[in-house]
Write a structure and sequence with these properties.
The complex is a heterodimer of chains A (about 180) and B (about 290). With about 180 residues, chain A is an alpha+beta fold. Chain A is built from five helices and five strands; from the N terminus they run E-E-H-E-E-E-H-H-H-H. A five-stranded mixed beta sheet of chain A has the order 2-1-5-3-4, with helices on both faces. The chains are: A alpha+beta (about 180), B alpha+beta (about 290).
């Protein structure tokens, strides 16, 4: 098995009670302890060291912290780590292939200039990945794509290039399937 | 932006969950968390104990039986939205859920959580009131049924007691010869609506035999627009009748003016939504 990229457990520095949490993250099963009030987003970033999941608004509006929880996109800032006990989580770190080859969605975002500062990008990629895995024949109309992307905010691109990247992702994914 | 500390339990039965809620006034059930957790992140709510309902298998699932769609309270929005049998029995369900927040929120948010939260701008309480649905709740004193009309009291306030858990939602199937429509207006797709309207019209021989219309976002709870219903029932659903229904709806707006809408604007919006949903429902009823 490949060497784990996850951080070592951090010693407790607060007097909060700690509850054991076992979950699978990007295919690797880990057990850590978490205060009941620790958000899943903070657990992923601070406890596991996977800082690709970004934190924007912390109340579910911006979509930066979107990860996949049991196969479906969800806000990691609107879940407690203890709720994810037994869950399978996927984050942006698990999207590219092991050799670093970009996933078609990442490739499309790059080709279409779907990102500028990149802060919102992991959330967009996870939302698109979840939707495209769930939907074999996505509606590629402008309105339908914008509805799918409506749960993620971007302050740089004006969205046009992200919509293009969505369409390009579908092309690349279909080509990869042959 | 970090919640205050709370005690966390995740029981596997409804009885254990009720026991965990009873005896602690500060205890609250945690369903999908898509409304509760943001308020906790802001420390607008600081429950002393959260009773997580997600491990209770009995609270999940959708069944269509004898003209009723039965939905377990912990069923996710997206599960109901994409359930073929439920939508075949009442296509209004999918039309309403498409307007609830965004996919990532609907993947986590639950039907029961949304209804128990009772946000007056939320779509599912409006659906329940419009269709004349009901819920089952369980508490220390056993279980009881509450009709939609008796469930919603005020902003974020239902007739559930603190230690009661909403366990099942029942939505009637679409009645024969009945057209439906839901429409809302929000500044952005997925935002809470400035107003939303759910309309059901039963049409026979070109005449409206029954009308049920409910609105969200206009008052302290979802409301039936009885005067608008009266303007349509018994008539032919022509443009004049639809306009009259829209005008009649305006008196139900009691929400205070806010940064997004003045009172006059919200009244005009409600009237427009009543006219539009009545036209769509009439067409779908074959009238």
């Amino acid at each position: 098995m490949a060497k784990s990229v996850l951080k070592k457990a951090i010693p407790a520095t607060s007097s909060d009670p700690r509850i054991p949490v076992t979950l699978t993250i990007n295919g690797e099963t880990v057990t850590r302890e978490a205060s009941p009030r620790l958000l899943l987003s903070d657990f992923i970033r601070h406890e596991l060291g996977l800082t690709g999941t970004h934190v924007g608004c912390e109340h579910g509006v911006c979509g930066c912290c979107t990860v996949m929880i049991d196969g479906r996109a969800g806000r990691s800032c609107l879940a407690f780590a203890v709720q994810a006990d037994g869950a399978e989580i996927r984050t942006i770190e698990g999207v590219a292939a092991g050799d670093g080859t970009l996933h078609p969605i990442q490739q499309a975002m790059m080709e279409c200039h779907g990102l500028q500062c990149g802060y919102c990008t992991p959330g967009f990629v996870m939302s698109m990945l979840s939707y495209l895995e769930e939907t074999p024949e996505p509606d590629l109309s402008e309105t339908a794509i914008r509805e799918v992307l409506s749960g993620n905010l971007c302050r740089c691109t004006g969205y046009n290039n992200i919509v293009k990247a969505f369409r390009r992702s579908v092309e690349l994914m279909n080509a990869a399937e042959g | 932006m970090k919640p205050a500390l709370f005690d966390y339990v995740a029981p596997e039965t409804v009885e254990a969950a009720v026991a965990a809620l009873a005896g602690d006034e500060t205890a609250r059930p945690l369903a999908g968390g898509q409304s509760l957790i943001p308020t906790m992140n802001f420390r607008l709510s600081t429950p002393g104990r959260l009773v997580d309902l997600q491990r209770i298998a009995a609270l999940r699932g959708i069944a269509v039986e004898g003209g009723t769609i039965r939905v377990g309270a912990m069923t996710r929005h997206r599960e109901l939205e994409t359930d073929a049998a439920a939508n075949a029995a009442n296509p209004l369900i999918g039309e309403v859920l498409d307007n609830v927040a965004h996919i990532a929120i609907r993947n986590r948010g639950t039907v029961g959580g949304s209804i128990a939260h009772a946000d007056p701008a939320a779509e599912l309480p409006c659906l329940l009131v419009a269709t004349g649905g009901a819920v089952t709740v369980e508490g220390p004193g056993g279980s009881r049924e509450i009709a939609a009309a008796d469930l919603f009291r005020f902003h974020m306030t239902t007739s559930l007691d603190q230690a009661e858990i909403l366990t099942e939602i029942r939505i009637p199937a679409l009645a024969p010869a009945t057209g439906y429509a839901f429409e809302e207006f929000a500044r952005r797709k997925g935002d809470y609506a400035l107003a939303g309207v759910c309309t059901l019209l039963t049409v026979e021989g070109g005449v409206c035999r029954a009308a049920r219309i409910a609105a969200c976002g206009i008052a302290s709870r979802p409301v039936r627009l009885a005067a608008a219903e009266d303007a349509l029932a018994g008539g032919t659903l022509d443009e004049a009748a639809r306009n009259a229904a829209g005008e009649a709806a305006k008196e139900y707006v009691t929400a205070q003016a806010d940064l997004q809408a003045s009172e006059a604007y919200r009244k005009d919006l409600l009237a427009a939504l009543v006219r539009r949903t009545a036209a769509t429902a009439a067409k779908r009823a074959g009238g």
